[in-house]
């Protein structure tokens, strides 16, 4: 596929994310009621399903021979292009009226990430990446000098698991970095890509949480690794991402996450 064709996939993903994000902005703070999906922390609202349906419609109308993998309604279609869709990443924030949520659309071609869009409707910020170019609202983000105290965005320790390795990692990061728990992996990755944070890591994600954000981070010259391997659609996994200049921090964090028992290759997730 040529650069122009990848550009056309990106434009479709942007269009889908913007339309869904505008719909969510209208429903934000309107008292969305949540339902629990698994653990009490894993919630969903009616807006999740509606936003995903809107995104699916836009993607498949523009590219009928493609596959969509969405958090709310699973897998449909087939083709060389796969769209990984999280209609609201940070659903609990959305439902509580907090602004930290985003629409996330990642594009894979032949199984490889090639583009991604993360749209944050509250601040109206559109993060896009394709062909090694990261843009925020259409412009290259300003780069800042590295901060001696790295800012780390993580939801570790994962609620409900009480994994001693996650608590030990949290304590260590809390002493050596400036930690934030923002509750949205897609936004955490977008913020690392945009240079607002230096590292992001989570131990409880699926492919749709990270497919777009990882494209943003790598386009920005940073790195991304799955722990123990690429987060999939069947088992929860982990990831570490880092901005340019934070490779050693990223490698150390990924190694430390190797001790988290539910992320072990043989563990049920
Ligand atoms: C959640 C976010 C969060 C991660 C959770 C996910 P959701 O997604 O990505 O960062 O820690 O495990 O479930 O449920 O708000 O789409
Ligand atoms: Ca999510
Ligand atoms: Ca979601």
Automatic annotation (TrEMBL):
UniProt keyword Nucleotidyltransferase present: no
The name this protein goes by in its record: inositol-phosphate phosphatase
Catalytic reactions of this protein: a myo-inositol phosphate + H2O = myo-inositol + phosphate
A biological process term (GO) from this entry: inositol metabolic process
Entry keywords, A to Z: Hydrolase, Magnesium, Metal-binding
Entry's EC annotation: 3.1.3.25
GO MF entries: inositol monophosphate 1-phosphatase activity; metal ion binding
Source taxon at top rank: Bacteria
Classification via InterPro entries: Inositol_monoP_metal-BS (IPR020583), Inositol_monophosphatase-like (IPR000760), Inositol_monophosphatase_CS (IPR020550)
PROSITE patterns: IMP_1, IMP_2
Binding-site residues, Mg(2+): 71, 86, 88-89, 209
Enzyme class: hydrolase
Cofactor(s) for this UniProt protein: Mg(2+)
Pfam name, any one: Inositol_P
